Predict the 3D structure of the following.
Amino acid sequence: MEVELKDMIEDLESLRQSLPDPSLHSSIDKLRLRVENLTNMAKSVPVRRSKVKDMSAEVVDSNPYSRLMALQRMGIVKNYERIREFSVAIVGVGGVGSVAAEMLTRCGIGRLLLYDYDKVELANMNRLFFRPEQVGMTKTDAAVQTLSDINPDVVLESYTLNITTVQGFDTFMSSLRNKSFCPSKEGTGVDLVLSCVDNYEARMAVNQACNELNQTWMESGVSEDAVSGHIQLLIPWRNCLFCLCTSFVCVFIVYIDSLNHTSFVVASGVDERTLKRGSLCRIFTYYNDNFITKKYTQHAIGGVVAGLLVQNTLKFLLNFGYVSPYLGYNSLKDYFPTMAMKPNPQCSNAACLERQEEYTLAKPARDAAAKAKMEAEALSATECQLHADNEWNISIVDDSEQDRMDGTSAGILVFYFAGIPF
Amino acid sequence: MEVELKDMIEDLESLRQSLPDPSLHSSIDKLRLRVENLTNMAKSVPVRRSKVKDMSAEVVDSNPYSRLMALQRMGIVKNYERIREFSVAIVGVGGVGSVAAEMLTRCGIGRLLLYDYDKVELANMNRLFFRPEQVGMTKTDAAVQTLSDINPDVVLESYTLNITTVQGFDTFMSSLRNKSFCPSKEGTGVDLVLSCVDNYEARMAVNQACNELNQTWMESGVSEDAVSGHIQLLIPWRNCLFCLCTSFVCVFIVYIDSLNHTSFVVASGVDERTLKRGSLCRIFTYYNDNFITKKYTQHAIGGVVAGLLVQNTLKFLLNFGYVSPYLGYNSLKDYFPTMAMKPNPQCSNAACLERQEEYTLAKPARDAAAKAKMEAEALSATECQLHADNEWNISIVDDSEQDRMDGTSAGILVFYFAGIPF
């Protein structure tokens, strides 16, 4: 804006010189004064920071990444710069999704894919992120506006669509498959999908897409009364939301399962209120009373859930700490339940069963690789052994990876389905 | 800005008509095009929402309070509108304080008092709230700019000062005493002080002020390595940070205790680095490893801690749920330790001992009032009794209030000092 105003001053000056009649100069002066006023006003208009080519750890006030890179210096993260290689898809840019998007943007994530079909309303001002002047914009457009101002280094892709429609679901699937950002990446084009939606249908659409694409994702939610929330890690071979339903109690799932994913999406015209509170949803309510909706999400709860979600996202992507399989938050009691799910071999979802089968088939190869790794480590340990006479034959077993993402640590309740642990 | 631009179009048109030579019209066209471009750009300049006189529960998209008032409809909060009567002081507008301020602003808090002496830097962009275009502004000015745009109904008071200087501390004390916002309020002029600072001296200054004013406050912090944080409720008669130090281990406290509060503040010229990491701080480090500093606060952790802090603030102010005496967050393990402190009758702080004595002296009157309340309730229970033959003499005891703010519930570790429970 300031460049445009500066050019106008020059244009006015050249016009002044072209004017034959000096009596017209006062009009030019008046216009010039207006441009000068506008220049002063424009100073309050946001100026975007320029892009930063390489992440630097230099500790100077002008470095937006200095304090994040400090995580590396302090030994928490091995290679923080890797953050720029990752793509994260956020489905639902509401009370949790928008805040998670802002956190990941400030964190310098490589690429964010944002999905929402809703518009910003004044009634959303109870929650963080959106501002009153964005009322009427689509949430995706408003988010891109704010996020690109905060960090122009992040590649933002905005999808203003409803993933529970046939067309929306197809676009969702193809956007997840698109590998142009990082062609060498294995699997899909994204590293993680974060579900931050407020209804069953959208959750099930994310679940279906991730099962089909073998895509790891995280679920999140805040209860309708805004006093509790949860996050959950879902790995297709290990579990999915459909796994939660055993055939004898889950009529709702029969309705979904009797259709393939496209039809299920089409079938979403069913009155959502009956799904939310009806008796068919008992199993969901039993499993997790936060699973209902989050229409009334309140700022503080949304902030906590988004923070827990993003912190677990960072741990997952940058390979540090323990990634919670499930973490709840009851704000009335400041109680944080954890639990883990085992896959349900009788899951009603075909794609989930396919992923389970692939995992089982690959087990011998995986075990062999793990054994080879252990042997190599044991050999290396023998070479630099402290006690040559290892009479008890003690060897080092690397179980940290299993512990990081599996809920089998002490104190965590493991759910078995149909009595069959997997 | 848009009015100015519209006037410019008119000026250009009248200039065009005054021009004798039509060859100059192209210059006018060029200028007009520039003005039109500027008009489009100006549309992205923030427009503030107007004030809302009364909080309404009406469920319409244009009501910024509809979803907060829903908390009342759902029975979580008895009278949400009371939020407008409360004043909260936030000391430190950094990674936690700024987010807490935004949450309370969106929540419609009556009045916020903000204290900070620092300026916004690009290096702060790892955390939520501040935007790159605010670099160079004081944090208090930048916060007031953003918060008043989000919710013009909140009364904002900005104090750009360092509370650990003599003058800063005096202004801090007098601002807390000022009751002009709600003259009928008992005690000080604020309902709660939130400490969101990143150093010992400021924490001790808040502690000292609150002890002297008998002001309930909450402490918060994030560890230097940005992987853990905590919040804590401090009620002067019950405990203070000085209470944590027993005389035989805490040389640091002797340094503070041998001076009155003003001198202690003056004495803050001591190199802070020695306080942060020196051996004198062992007792603090032992008590709480988050107590060091939060210079490297990262967005997600700051968001979680701010969310927990604000949720506990809302529970405290609006009288619902359980207010945690201490709640920690270890993000590497998703572990949330809780504990409670008992007051230390050998506390090294004179103001703390005065508050403890007042509390002890008022005990007989408090017990008598509690007994009268119980008797009244027992009488009322007898009047509508179900079992006239109460042979075991069972009576109803109201312990909910004690449970709400005291850490004596099951599962919470209670700390005793010098072996003497209070």
User: Anything to note?
Assistant: Chain B touches chain A through 97 residues (CB under 8 Å). Residues 18 and 154 of chain B are 51 Å apart (CA to CA). DSSP finds 15 helices and nine strands in chain B. The first helix of chain B runs from residue 2 to 18.
